[in-house]
Write a structure and sequence with these properties.
Layout: H1 9-20, H2 23-30, H3 34-48, E1 53-56, E2 59-62, H4 64-84, E3 97-102, H5 104-121, E4 126-131, H6 137-143, E5 148-151, E6 153-155, E7 160-168, E8 170-175, H7 187-192, E9 195-198, E10 207-208, E11 211-214, E12 217-220, H8 226-235, E13 242-246, H9 252-256, E14 263-266, H10 267-276, E15 279-283, E16 291-298, H11 305-322
Parallel strand pairs: 3-4, 3-5, 9-13
Antiparallel strand pairs: 1-2, 5-16, 6-12, 7-16, 8-14, 8-15, 10-11, 11-12
Length: about 325
């Protein structure tokens, strides 16, 4: 392939299509018509000798060749911007759009506070939250569709960076009037009463040992440490009784009310439930290590002033909540 035959503007077009997976949206961001974007893509296909994208019911899906190129193209564009000299990032004047991946618990507890913080310190910035539960996060970080992923990660590959934000303690939540609320809550109660669990990915989605591994990034597939619960009950000759499993944590209060069920959730979420619902919070009757909440980003953003500023804001929110 002769590089002299490629208009370097086409690389920027390809980069945006990789992010948007839609020609019309890519055109809006590039201030080009959809036909112009389509023509640019056709030129790139001819120059590279690969289809780059195929149409599916979900939009444009990149080929293996395009996925391999994506992180290298994004890093090259970032280096070009840095070489040309980028103006210092000013959050008060910036109109940048940041995309964060988070589950509904993290969105309700941390992203909500981040949004309020940005409303006063960075009024022109747009914050887009993508669900972390149904995405290949590693791919999305690689191609630049996500600036920051916030969640519980057991393994982070070397091409990605991570920062620990907080340690989340687990507690038990139950409806007011629950029989277990009238006395000291015990391990036997956890076996006697049925459990309501939140799972964002089971065996059918590739979960192994409570984690889903995608391109080296292992994210937690359940809201609580099932292994610690099962081991504690097993030592007492007991077993958990999981009656209902749901994919979204906001459903917990309504399902618990007028039932004899219990649920094990992060204390940060339990506090939200207790403040607005007929929900009681009790400490776990066994020892369970806290789970570490982490922020993950691609290493190409290590010197991006805007992304570093966003990470600082997320850290400030997490520290304020923990204090």
């Amino acid at each position: 392939m002769n590089l002299d035959r490629i208009d370097l503007n086409l690389i920027r077009v390809l980069d945006v299509i990789l992010e948007e997976r839609n020609l019309a949206r890519a055109g809006l961001r590039l201030h080009l018509s959809q036909s112009a974007v389509s023509h640019a893509l056709a030129r790139m296909r001819e120059a590279i000798g690969d289809e780059l994208f195929v149409r599916t019911g979900k939009g444009l899906e990149p080929t293996a060749r395009a996925l391999a190129m994506a992180p290298l193209l994004r890093e090259a564009l970032t280096r070009i911007k840095q070489s040309l000299g980028v103006q210092p990032f000013d959050p008060q004047r910036s109109t940048r759009r940041f995309t964060i991946a988070a589950n509904d618990h993290i969105t309700a507890v941390f992203v909500a506070r981040l949004s309020r913080r940005l409303g006063t310190g960075a009024p022109g910035i747009t914050l887009v939250v993508q669900p972390s539960t149904r995405l290949d996060l590693a791919e999305q970080l690689d191609v630049g569709c996500i600036d920051l992923a916030i969640g519980l990660f057991a393994e982070v590959p070397g091409r990605l960076r991570c920062h620990s934000l907080a340690t989340l303690k687990e507690v038990v939540v139950m409806p007011k009037g629950h029989p277990g609320a009238r006395r000291r809550f015990t391990l036997e109660d956890l076996a006697r009463y049925p459990l309501l669990a939140v799972s964002v990915g089971g065996d059918d989605e590739g979960a192994v040992g409570g984690f889903i591994v995608e391109r080296g990034l292992a994210r937690q597939s359940e809201m609580f440490d099932r292994r610690s619960l099962e081991e504690a009950l097993k030592d007492a000759g007991l077993a958990p009784n999981i009656r209902v499993t749901v994919p979204h944590s906001p459903a917990i209060p309504s399902l618990l009310i007028d039932s004899d069920m219990l649920s094990i959730v992060p204390e940060t979420l339990a506090q939200e439930f207790a403040a607005s619902s007929r929900i009681l919070v009790r400490q776990l009757p066994y020892d369970a290590p806290g789970t570490v909440l982490r922020a993950v980003w691609h290493r190409r953003n290590d010197h991006d002033a805007a992304c570093l500023w966003l990470l600082g804001e997320v850290r400030a929110v997490a520290q304020a909540y923990a204090s």
